[in-house]
């Protein structure tokens, strides 16, 4: 288990992770109206939140892991002092135009139905949820026994779990879409085409109905 600072340095040092983060952040910024509030759900060490705040978006951060939250307080000290970033103990403590969940935050949930019901009380009508989730069809994982052992579960049920300390679950997009209804509808799903087997992360954009 990494400390917040160790995680922060590792993820910033990864060229692949930086590329994923850049794409995710740009999509968020393209979708947000000027000055709109955003909740960074599972904010980690505050890397995304710092970018949103710098672009003029009041940013709430929800991070339940103590190690991450403590380092976030250091990394975003100036923004927190200036109240452009505000830490919340519960997502329900804010009302925003958008909720973002980057780098597999939603893969830590076994079921998303209650989560989306809660987020429906956070996101304003017409707002959105953007999540990057682990792509269950990524062929780079085929070298692992757990991927091959769960392929039938993925085909039959659209989901499976891996026994690990982190409690990671994999989901086919249709399962998440079903859990998001009736509060949110899927507006965009990335990647397309060949990217389905070559990219580790998929982006799901949900619009509040």
UniProtKB/TrEMBL annotation:
Domain of life, per lineage: Bacteria
Claim: Lipoprotein is one of the keywords in the record: no
Gene Ontology molecular function terms on file: methyltransferase activity
Which UniProt keywords are present, listed alphabetically?
Methyltransferase, Transferase
Q: Which GO terms describe its biological process?
A: methylation
Q: Which InterPro entries match?
A: SAM-dependent_MTases_sf
Q: What protein name applies here?
A: Methyltransferase domain-containing protein
Origin species, per record, is: Rhodanobacter denitrificans
């Amino acid at each position: 288990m990494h400390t917040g600072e160790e995680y922060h340095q590792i993820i910033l040092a990864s060229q692949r992770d930086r590329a994923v983060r850049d794409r995710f952040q740009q999509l968020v910024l393209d979708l947000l109206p000027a000055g709109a509030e955003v909740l960074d759900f599972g904010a980690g060490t505050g890397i995304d939140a710092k970018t949103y705040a710098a672009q003029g978006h009041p940013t709430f951060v929800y991070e339940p892991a103590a190690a991450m939250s403590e380092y976030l307080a250091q990394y975003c000290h100036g923004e927190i002092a200036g109240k452009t970033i505000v830490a919340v103990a519960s997502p329900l403590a804010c009302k925003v135009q958008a909720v973002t969940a980057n780098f597999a935050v939603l893969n830590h949930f076994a079921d998303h139905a209650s989560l989306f019901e809660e987020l429906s009380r956070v996101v304003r009508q017409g707002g959105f949820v953007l999540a990057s989730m682990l792509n269950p069809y990524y062929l780079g994982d085929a070298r692992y026994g757990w991927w091959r052992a769960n392929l039938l579960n993925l085909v039959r049920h659209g989901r499976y779990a891996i026994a690990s300390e982190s409690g990671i679950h994999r989901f086919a997009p249709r399962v998440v879409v079903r859990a998001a209804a009736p509060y949110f509808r899927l507006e965009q799903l990335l990647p397309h085409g060949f990217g389905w087997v070559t990219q580790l992360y998929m982006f799901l954009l949900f619009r509040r109905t």
